[in-house]
Predict the 3D structure of the following.
Amino acid sequence: MADRWTIANRLKLQIQERLGQLARSQAPENDELQVYQLLEELDQQVEELGFQVLKEPLHMRGTTKTRVTQLGLDAKDLRKSLSTHVEKRKRKERQESERAELLTKSYSANSNDTALMIDASLDHHDRLSSSNRAMDDMLGTAHSVLENLRGQGSVLKRTQRRVLDIANTLGLSNTVMRFIEQRSSQDKFILWAGMVTTLGIMGLLYYYFVMGRA
């Protein structure tokens, strides 16, 4: 078992050293493959050590199992480091390739690609302008409607107070007073219904002019 520990620790050190050299490698894919092979060997050693734990004396088995578990975790961390390096390298290569393609691609003044790009930009600008105008109109209309409703509410309140004052002055019956109060409640319901209807119309206009043309 001591020999396997020696082999496993040597593999671990080799992998750590190779990972540190990958960033400066001139042949990264080949070096990454070598690190991957070393990781496979380390995993085999960890597996064999796990079997050897069962052969250890009981008083040493717990300590040995802990060491094997830690070695397995170290191997997983090294494998994760390799995967991270490979992903970064591939992403960098892809970005460099896309950048080179953009630099080498030329556009003539009358090329189809340029015309399509310009037409798409103009169409997008026209839609945004139309949507902005529609929103401005909707906001202006909504503001006017709300101001009118607010004004009508104020008028109704003042009218109600005047009628109640007059009724008190003239000494009208309770039946007439209740009728006036019911009428006030109905007017208030009509006011709220008008406001809800107006908001619903505004929502429909927003959906038609903005969402429908997006």
Remarks:
- The mean pLDDT is 76.
- The helical segments are 2-21, 28-53, 58-104, 112-170, 174-211.
